[in-house]
Amino acid sequence: MKILVTGGLGFIGSHTVVELQKKGYEVVIIDNCSNSSIKVIDGITAITSKKPVFEQFDLREKDKVVSFFERHHDIEGVIHFAASKAVGESVEKPLLYYENNLSTLVYILQQLTQKGASNFIFSSSCTVYGQADKLPITEDAPVKAAESPYGNTKQIGEEIIQDTCKVNPSLKAISLRYFNPVGAHPSAEIGELPIGVPQNLVPFITQTGIGLREQLSVFGDDYPTQDGTCIRDYIHVVDLAKAHVIALQRLLEDKNASNYEVFNVGTGKGSSVLEVITSFEKVSDQKLNYKIVGRREGDVIAAYADTTKANSQLGWKAESTLDESLSSAWKWEQKVRNS
Ligand code: WQD
User: Fold this and answer.
1) In terms of domains, do 216 and 238 share one?
2) What is the CA 37 to chain-centroid distance, rounded?
3) Same domain, residue pair 51 and 176
4) Is 194 a member of any domain?
């Protein structure tokens, strides 16, 4: 069975390709390599001994999307990762984000709705909740005014899919709202490859640990939390990848599934920034050089998932601990820097 993975050379995409191949799916990747490297194909192949089919083009080119689906008319499912995802950049360049994240989604859905039965998994984000009033966060928590154009593209993207499914009963879709994906494949053949200065906490920690960065700045320790630093739900990227395969299988096999559903994908456990630092120091057996600085604009105090729905309806549960996630991230950082 052939599955299209857009953005399949990216961090979460590449780990999902590996899990799909392990389950026997034939995978086709589309990636424009704007935020990923073609070398990731070698990493995937090293893990699974199966080289995925790869086409490099930009999904904003509608005619290329149309011709792709003409050539691959036997695509049974699409997992759509391809999008710009830097919150800060989205504030500076909103039109880039609205064009890239939304026009590409529309072009793909147009092809799927012309095909008849099809299955679609959308990469969404807990960012749609903003600062939730109640923790842990359930799927029926209100979707709040987006804190950034990036977050808004995830909210609008979910609405586009929902509206399309309403009038196309043969299109079945699931939006997965990720919490904070971290870590790397245990083989260290694939992992996170941030371009430039990492915006996210864990890659900045590992780059500081390896000496690439001088010091980690902790954005605020005056929040109303146990140790004053923000709390997030850090989920191992392999656990997250497995959730995509299980969600796809639900669409392919469970005839009772409604044709549009949303699931939170997290561990259900909140960890503070200082707890993540402590975990890194433990797994790397070294002290991390960091300092407390002012708060970062737009940060929510705390966000962690209520995973009851995914646990019970998908039969999926995150397995890796924070230490295991940080340990895999550290192993990957050492591999990348020493290769
Ligand atoms: C986590 C915590 C920071 C860096 C973002 C997006 C979200 C998703 C994941 C795409 C916060 C603190 C961070 C640093 C720090 N992306 N921090 N020093 O902001 O929760 O989520 O990435 O889907 O949509 O919003 O993740 O890793 O940036 O920050 O103190 O150098 O670490 O303040 O409390 P975030 P993050």
Assistant:
1) no
2) 17
3) yes
4) no
C-alpha span between 337 and 202 (Å, rounded): 16
- What is the identity of the amino acid at 224? P
Among 180, 208, 214, name the best residue to mutate to test ligand 1's pocket (greatest count of ligand atoms within 8 A of Cβ). Answer: 180
Which residues sit with their C-beta closer than 6 Å to ligand 1? 85, 87, 125, 127, 178, 180, 199-201, 204, 216-219, 230, 232, 273, 296, 299
Residues 142 and 226 in one domain: no
Answer yes or no: 150 catalytic.
yes
**Active-site residue (options: 97, 107, 150, 178):** 150
pTM: 0.97
Per residue in 314-334, pLDDT (tens digit) is 999 999 999 999 999 999 999
The CATH number given to whatever domain includes residue 298 is 3.90.25.10
ipTM of model? 0.97
Whether 14 shows a pLDDT value over 90: the answer reads: yes
Determine the structural domain holding residue 327 and report its residue range: 201-232+268-334
Token pair for 30: 């589309």
Residues 167, 148, 265, CA angle at the centre, nearest 5°?
60
